[in-house]
Amino acid sequence: MWNRQQVKEQAKQIMKRNYWKMFVVTLIASTLTGEKTTIIERVQDFASNNISYDTSPIFYSSNFQYIFYSFISIASILGILYTIFIGNVIVVGNNGYFIKNHDENPELGEIFSGFKGNYLNVVKIMFLMDLKTLLWLFLFIVPGIIKAYEYSMIPYLLAENPNLSADEAFSLSKQMTSGQKADLFVLDLSFIGWIILGLICCGIGILFVLPYPQATRAEVYLNLRDFVKI
Question: Which UniProt keywords are present, listed alphabetically (predicted)?
């Protein structure tokens, strides 16, 4: 069906043709989605902020504590809402750009395509994807990771068809990743060296590396898509 060397080589060929535009798209998408690109991380951050405490003298003031934690809680909630209604939609648009970039030269505005189609449907399904993954992770870490890979094709499916129902999106992603999860996991591991290399340059170097794994994952999606009826 596909192998790691094949999809990575395909991604490299695409990068030779259109690297700098891919870099700009990745930069814009990374900036707009923020460091935390999923509701899972936002919720985890919200939870940790609300159960942590500080023993320094200034925190002995109950009023200061209340104001401080209220501010942190509001900021976390706003971050969750931003991820649900904006960040996740940009993730879908970003994936749509890399799908089209396989054989086209799409415009930069493609990363905002999720707002132009069935926006609320995209918001709903991406929220359900994150929520289900989060619940699995709360129950068991390993099954949660497996489910994350099972749902990993959903943003790509929505990029091509924002009118899919939730049942269709989850079912198609499950079909596409059946028997593929271990390979997808190994594929992600294969980029660790590149990510470390990018982090060496004060962390900013990772922005120059990110187009490579994103293009590769899009190639995986295109390969898997051919084996299911969409």
Answer: Membrane, Transmembrane, Transmembrane helix
In a domain? residue 158: yes
Answer yes or no: is 137 within a domain: yes
For residue 214, being part of any structural domain is answered with yes
pLDDT tens per residue across span 195-219 = 888 778 766 778 899 999 999 999 9
Q: Which of 65, 116, 66 is nearest to 89 (CA)?
A: 116
The angle subtended at Cα 38 by Cα 32 and Cα 42, nearest 5°, is 95
Q: What is the pTM of this model?
A: 0.85
Query: Is residue 47 one of the residues assigned to a domain?
Result: no
Backbone dihedral angles phi then psi of residue 52, each to the nearest 5 degrees? -80, 165
Q: How many angstroms separate the CA atoms of 220 and 7, rounded?
A: 6
Q: So what's the pLDDT on residue 127?
A: 96
Alpha-carbon separation of residue 27 from 15, 23, 111 (angstroms): 15, 6, 11
Number of domains in the chain: 1
pLDDT at residue 53 is higher than 90: no
